[in-house]
C-alpha cells in the first residue's frame, strides 16, 4: 500500500479478534464489501488469544443467556472450535442462592439444561470446603473452545466471500465526510459508509480517535497455571461465587484466577503480587490446591474490555450516522461471538438486529435507568 492509497468498502471493521472475525463472515455472507483493519501483525493477538476459553449459559439476564446459547450451538458444529463440554460448576453462597435459583429457572425456561445440586452431590465433581455455601449449579453444555481456531476459521470463510484483512493498520483518525467514514492509518486511507467497532480492549480508544465517547476500558486479567499435578483430573470450570476464585483442568495442569476489580488500564505483564490474594481465596475453598506447584512460565495475562455494567455495547451509535459497536464484552466475547456476528450483520444490512432483541445492550442504556443487571459476572 502506498501512502496515498485510498481503499473503499461497504463496512470498515475495526479489529480481527473473534468478534470482528464473526461479524466479517456474516457481513460477507450478505454480499457486503468488508475490510478488516487490525492494528497488530496477526489476528487474535488481543483478548481472543489470551482468553481462558470458557463458554457458558449460566447468566441471569435473558439476552446474555441466549447470546451464549446460540453461539454454543454454532461452535458445536464447527470442528475448528474444538468445543469440549466440560461443564461450569458455580458454588453459591447462602446469601446469593435465592437470586441464583431464579436465574436457573430463567435459563431452563429458555431451553437450557442447568442442574441444581446439593453440596454433597457437588462434592462428587470437585472437592471443596462447603462453609457458607447453600448449593451449586452445573451447566453440562458449558465448557471450553479454541478461540484462535474459531477466529481463523471465520477469517478463512470470510476470505472466500471477498473480505479483505489489513494487518498493521491501526486506526489513527476517523471522521465522517460526504456520507462516508474516512479512516486514516499509517499506510493508507479507507472509506466506507459504515464502521463496525470490534476493537476489544481498544474500543474506547478507537472511539476517541473518532471523537466519540464509548465507555470501554481495558482491565488486565491473570491466568495462573500449575505444573502437571501428578494425578488424573477433569475439573469443570469451577467458580466460588463467594470470592470470585475460579479454576479448571487444562490437560495435566490446573489453571486458575481471580479478577482484580480495582485494576483498570493498559497495565502489562504478570502481576505476581496478585498471586497471594488469589491463592488465599482458592486455598480457603479448595485446600487440595496446596498439593500443586505453580508454573510461572505457563501462566499468562490478557485484557478484559469492560463497560460500567460489565455488559457489551451492541448496535448503532445514537446520533452518529454509520457507526456500529460490538465491543465491551467484559470477558464474554468468546462465548457470544457467533451470535453477535449474525446480529451485527442484521443491524447493518437490514437496519436493525431482528433475531434477538439487543435493546438491553444498546448504547442508549447509559443515559437511562434501563441497565442490564447481570449478576453472574466472573
From TrEMBL:
Keywords associated with the record: Membrane, Oxidoreductase, Transmembrane, Transmembrane helix
S-adenosyl-L-methionine found in the keyword field: no
Transmembrane segments: 6-27
GO molecular function list: oxidoreductase activity
SUPFAM superfamilies with a match to the protein in the record: FAD/NAD(P)-binding domain
Pfam families to which the protein is assigned, alphabetical: DAO (PF01266)
InterPro entries per UniProt: FAD-dep_OxRdtase, FAD/NAD-bd_sf
GO CC field: cytoplasm
All copies of domain FAD dependent oxidoreductase, residue ranges: 10-346
Protein name: FAD dependent oxidoreductase
Amino acid at each position: 500500500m502506498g501512502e496515498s492509497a485510498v481503499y473503499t468498502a461497504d463496512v470498515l471493521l475495526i479489529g480481527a479478534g473473534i468478534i470482528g472475525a464473526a461479524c466479517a463472515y456474516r457481513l460477507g455472507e450478505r454480499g457486503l464489501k468488508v475490510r478488516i483493519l487490525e492494528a497488530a501483525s496477526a489476528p487474535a493477538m488481543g483478548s481472543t488469544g489470551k482468553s481462558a476459553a470458557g463458554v457458558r449459559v449460566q447468566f441471569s439476564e435473558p439476552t446474555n443467556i441466549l447470546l451464549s446459547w446460540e453461539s454454543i450451538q454454532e461452535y458445536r458444529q464447527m470442528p475448528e472450535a474444538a468445543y469440549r463440554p466440560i461443564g461450569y460448576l458455580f458454588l453459591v453462597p447462602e446469601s446469593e442462592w435465592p437470586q441464583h435459583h431464579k436465574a436457573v429457572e430463567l435459563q431452563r425456561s429458555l431451553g437450557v439444561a442447568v442442574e441444581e445440586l446439593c453440596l454433597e452431590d457437588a462434592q462428587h465433581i470437585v472437592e471443596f470446603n462447603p462453609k457458607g455455601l447453600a448449593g451449586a449449579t452445573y451447566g453440562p453444555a458449558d465448557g471450553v473452545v479454541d478461540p484462535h481456531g474459531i477466529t481463523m476459521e471465520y477469517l478463512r470463510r470470510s476470505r472466500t466471500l471477498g473480505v479483505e484483512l489489513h494487518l498493521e493498520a491501526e486506526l489513527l483518525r476517523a471522521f465522517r465526510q460526504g456520507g462516508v467514514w474516512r479512516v486514516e492509518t499509517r499506510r493508507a486511507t479507507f472509506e466506507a459508509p459504515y464502521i463496525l467497532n470490534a476493537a476489544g480492549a481498544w474500543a474506547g480508544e478507537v472511539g476517541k480517535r473518532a471523537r466519540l465517547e464509548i465507555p470501554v476500558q481495558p482491565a488486565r486479567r491473570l491466568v495462573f497455571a500449575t505444573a502437571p499435578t501428578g494425578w488424573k483430573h477433569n475439573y469443570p470450570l469451577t467458580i466460588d461465587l463467594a470470592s470470585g476464585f475460579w479454576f479448571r483442568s487444562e490437560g495435566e495442569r490446573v489453571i486458575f484466577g481471580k479478577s482484580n476489580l480495582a485494576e483498570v488500564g493498559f497495565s502489562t505483564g504478570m502481576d505476581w503480587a496478585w498471586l497471594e490474594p488469589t491463592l488465599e481465596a482458592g486455598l480457603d475453598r479448595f485446600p487440595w490446591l496446596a498439593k500443586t506447584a505453580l508454573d510461572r512460565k505457563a501462566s499468562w495475562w490478557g485484557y478484559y474490555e469492560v463497560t460500567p455494567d460489565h455488559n457489551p455495547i451492541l448496535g448503532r451509535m445514537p446520533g452518529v450516522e454509520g457507526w456500529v459497536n460490538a465491543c465491551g464484552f467484559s470477558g464474554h466475547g468468546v462465548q457470544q461471538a457467533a451470535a453477535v456476528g449474525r446480529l451485527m450483520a442484521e443491524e447493518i444490512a437490514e437496519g436493525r438486529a431482528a433475531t434477538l432483541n439487543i435493546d438491553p445492550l444498546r448504547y442508549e442504556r447509559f443515559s437511562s435507568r434501563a441497565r442490564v443487571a447481570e449478576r453472574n459476572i466472573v
